[in-house]
């Protein structure tokens, strides 16, 4: 299960610089709007110290971390939903992601053009969010036009769908994104095929100047945090320049660099943790001499569903899951000691997988 996030924002807020840094790709990052003309996709591995421990313990032939896919989408401007700037072509790319990362300019620099000619993070956020809502409204209006006749004919499913679409339309017209409607599971299933942008969870990434990152931000990033909290969203404070410098260093040097700056984690690590938290994701592992691998799953998934992430046959023919926890393995030192301590267990179809479970699935097809 590879995570997908779309990086959006106004032009010249640091989107492409951050994308370059976190994916180590040499993407054009120029000081003018629309330097990004096509959506760039980069895949990064999700750092996990637990997988490093498993590698040292099992000495496998290969190690496979879980991944995070980023799509850098061209800078949106006011009127994008109506075709301004690069318009709907780029809004369509956002529909394919799991979460939205909205980069917000929280630094002042007269050498870098701002399309609105001043630094105002809340105004910038609302420009982007309104364009995303307008794009969704267009989809909803189109769908209402198609389902109204069936609803008038008292078709049960059509009546239910029209009620939901009308509720969403009213919300969007009041500048309330769909994610704030708290739709139930059935309602979410009804609209899933429409890939509505504002139904997706969002993380705000406040891009600050180098001198502000050590302090944890500035007055602008504090404004973003306040806005995000009111919406129930997360904020990650980063400095694109520092992330760019970090991307050029070896892992051991990165830790030293961050320590010297007085920063605990890189922006990428913070973003990954925030996304996992936002999407309700966790990690389980498979481990052996042939391969140690991390697998991403949704919290609440049962053992057969998690087995199905590896292969559909594992879920179809699921018998039992042989499980030990990572904390037990780390504390006791090896698999044999875990077994002798009675900490290796067999779990059935109703077992709810936990973060850090190390699994061997028994199945028969």
% residues in beta strands? 15-25%
The percentage helix is 40-55%
What is the oligomer described by this structure? Answer: single chain
Q: Which structural class do you get from the secondary structure elements?
A: alpha/beta
Helix and strand pattern: EHEHEEHEHHHEHHEHHHEEHHEHHEE
Walk me through this protein's architecture:
This protein is of the alpha/beta class. The protein is 43% helix and 20% strand. It is built from 15 helices and twelve strands. The chain has helices at residues 15-23, 49-58, 88-94, 121-152, 156-173, 185-191, 210-213, 219-231, 240-246, 251-261, 267-279, 303-310, 312-316, 326-332, 335-340, and strands at residues 3-8, 40-45, 62-64, 67-72, 99-105, 202-207, 234-238, 281-287, 291-298, 318-325, 345-347, 357-363. Strands 2-4-1-5-6-7 form a six-stranded mixed beta sheet, with helices on both faces. It starts with a strand and ends with a strand. Residues 26-37 and 84-88 have low confidence and may be disordered.
What would a concise description of this structure say?
The protein has 365 residues and is an alpha/beta fold. It contains 15 helices and twelve strands. Helix 1 (15-23) runs parallel beside helix 9 and helix 4 runs antiparallel to helix 5 (156-173).
